[in-house]
Design brief:
The protein is mainly alpha-helical. The protein is built from three helices and no strands. The protein has two domains: about 55 residues; about 35 residues, no CATH class. Helix content is about 75%, strand content about 0%.
Length: about 90
């Protein structure tokens, strides 16, 4: 099929294809760049006007009381909770 086309027409179509390739990639690049900056701007505005609520401190003794050490899994969970509570104290 390529042998049947005149060389000038083939070069013109290749040129048009490369132009479309560059335009398409350029449009996608510009769109993604605008998307990144607009996302950062919206994030900045939200953090500026809607600050995160302050979390209340949970005492470790409250966490330990909720674990039931009746089974082996409960004992392991209680040991993990106690270790975490101990690490937060010291």
């Amino acid at each position: 099929m390529l042998n049947q086309m005149p060389k000038e027409l083939l070069l013109e179509q290749m040129n048009n294809g490369l132009i479309l390739l560059a335009l398409g990639m350029g449009v996608v690049f510009i769109f993604l760049t605008l998307l990144v900056f607009s996302t950062k701007f919206v994030s900045f505005v939200i953090r500026r006007f809607l600050p995160e609520p302050v979390a209340q401190n949970v005492r470790p003794s409250q966490t330990i009381a909720t674990v039931s050490p009746r089974t082996a899994d409960g004992e392991i969970a209680a040991a993990i909770v106690a270790a975490v509570a101990q690490s937060h104290r010291g």
